[in-house]
Design brief:
Layout (H helix, E strand, L loop, with lengths): L10 E2 L5 E8 L1 H6 L5 H11 L11 E10 L8 H18 L3 E5 H8 L10 E6 L2 E8 L9 E3 L2 E3 L2 H25 L12
Parallel strand pairs: 2-3, 2-4, 4-6
Antiparallel strand pairs: 1-3, 5-6, 7-8
Helix pairs in contact: 3-4
Length: 193
Amino acid sequence: MPTTETRIPPNGSTTQSLTIVSDRISGYEATAGNLFGGVVGSVLSRILGAPGVGIPMDSIYSTAVIPWRLSRDRNPRRGEINGRRDSLAAELTTVQPLVIVALGDISAYALFADRPFEQGEWRTWKALGFSAPTFCTLHPREALWNHIDEGRFLADPRTKKRRMWDDWRAIADRYNNVRERGTSPDDGLEENR
């Protein structure tokens, strides 16, 4: 259930978009009053404008699995994610993005509950007769602090930033290919089963 915090609506382009799916609304975003607001938004803007990426902000549509701030910025529980899955599928089907980016494991689980979806992996997301290539990468907020990643402590945030940059270059390549050349969005991708 939502807390007393205000619901943060999705925002951005709904035409030939690259859709970014976040897990939840953080304190940064709740304070700014929009998804990817504040310092998290600054990190995302720098990633999108980085050399080799160059995705314009006006082609981005952003949404969250849980579109409100949870108490103490906790991660959403499985029941909360499962309760939002149909709404998220309906939203993505309405927007019909060219490419979907799942930010972190929680967003990936919301899109692909049936089996693990590894960061750095492409998959085809399908629902309600619509499909789109989908990539999982780190959330931009991961660049703001140190944490355990894949069983090892990453003391240097530059390691995560480099990984994000590499991922976003692959995302930009796929997005530009789909948008400019008109190739089928899910050509050659493994379908979610």
